[in-house]
What does this fold into?
Amino acid sequence: MAQDIIIAADRAQPLGRYPHTRRIGQWVFVSGTSSRRPDNTYAGAEQWEDGTWHLDIKAQTQAVLENIRHYLQLNNCDLQHLVDVTVFLKNMDDFNAYNEVYNSFFPETGPCRTTVEVSALPRPQILIEIKATAFIDT
It folds into this structure.
């Protein structure tokens, strides 16, 4: 079966040997995505002069879902094609704020979803990461 691998040149580059997406037939698999920008800064993360971070789960959730939307569009689909997402939150206390932003992207029923709290993500300024699977029924 044919595979299409996409590493989007206009987004933050993978930090390992993995693509942003891998499409196999009608299935599109999206690697875990954060709010990292092409310059390796993070939306929703501002480091203050004293070295502490001001972190905004809403801004990070917005950026993550916009990144995922972009990756899907490169595969000729969009968020409505998502069938399953796994959300990794650094702190479950952020659930309501993340859920508010998440729901704004899916005015009707969205994809199946699992949300778990994890003890750490790859960088201290990351509050959320999402991996996703889409199905293109065309």
